[in-house]
Amino acid sequence: MGRRFDEFDDWPGDGRRRRTVLLPSIVAGLAVFYVLGIWTGAAISHSGHQATVEYVPSVASNGSGSSSSTTAIPGVDNTTLVTDIYNRVKNSIFTITAVSGGKSASDSGAEEDIGTGFLIDRNGDIATNAHVVGSAKTVEVSSGNRQYVGRVLNADKLDDLAIVRIPAPASLQPLPLGSVKSLQPGSLVIAIGNPFELTSSVSSGIVSGLNRSMSESSGHVMNGMIQTDAPLNPGNSGGPLLNAAGQVVGINTLIESPIEGSIGIGFAIPIDRFIQLEPKLLSGQPIAHAWLGIEGMDIDNLMQEAMHLPVSSGVYVTETTKDGPAAKAGLQGDSNANKLNSANDTADPYTILKGNGDIIVGIDGEPVNSIEQLTQYINQDNPGQKVTLTVLRHGKKITVEVTLGTWPSGH
């Protein structure tokens, strides 16, 4: 069945967890969760994951002007690869605690969000997830017996990236940044973080897949995600995913699980996306995201047959956002979209929709076969930029020029 543009597996609305609650009951099906937060009173089982690989250094340029080194860590013995990398980078990885509902964690009613971050330059800047810092302006940062007050320089909620600055001593080494381009399915990866408040924990695994797409509850889609079977659990959020050369290739962010714990399906934001946004994050500039303003479905063979559509792939527009960019450009949704929105979850959308919505099959001359392709293209654009959509309307091919808007802050 076709996949609704607004019906991907949702992330939690704000990803926050009370420190004292237990793990929730198991629910049917898989759900996607942030991997931040801690719980007490839950039994935790840890299993080892060993891998033997050939050590092959790789070098990538971050292109951001950052002072972070991009050379591989030297002197690594491939018989103890994970251990050697862990020992070399652990002092530059931190526990980040964001407190809400009080000035400190000891205040009555205060809640803590606990995640991970890692040093990226000699100015004391730490990369982490936006959902780790939340709306906090300052956070508690610690590593071993070292404690700092970190200032949140900037956070991009849609990309789930943030930078925190601490008065780091000059002796601390920034972690070398690599590139997702150094990875392929089967590549060894290493995750370091604070799962369930077990600080400086290391796990390893392989790259299970690349270029995965995950949707937030707002409908915004994050593209290019790294999928790994390296165990990730609440508290790993914001921590580094490293390759066999000891370079950061991703920022651990999500798990897909029915139990809010690792079942071997974890996701990391590619470090390339962070490098791209790093200058804006450091400057404190707000980061705007391009917005088309539609809801839609992936067309497949079943949908084509059931709704008598002229193509077996593309994006079927069910609805356009009122006064949004697509609506202003004249893009048309299905005339029965309101009935679909009010139908129960078990209703068959193919029997409700009329089949008279526009079908997007291209953008700027590039073919579009799915929502994933469409959003991946738009995510590379800027608000105010014009794109030309190739559209099938009542079986006839037309072009629609859309001026992309800014993703609404309330979404």
UniProtKB/TrEMBL annotation:
GO-annotated molecular function: serine-type endopeptidase activity
Q: Does the keyword Transmembrane apply?
A: yes
The UniProt record lists the PDZ domain at 290-395
Q: Which terms are listed as keywords in the entry?
A: Hydrolase, Membrane, Protease, Serine protease, Transmembrane, Transmembrane helix
What is an example of a Pfam family matching this protein?
Answer: Trypsin_2
Query: Per its UniProt record, what Gene3D superfamilies does this chain match?
Result: 2.30.42.10, 2.40.10.120
Output one GO BP term. proteolysis
Segments spanning the bilayer are: 21-42
**Name recorded for this polypeptide:** 2-alkenal reductase
Q: Which organism is it from?
A: Alicyclobacillus hesperidum
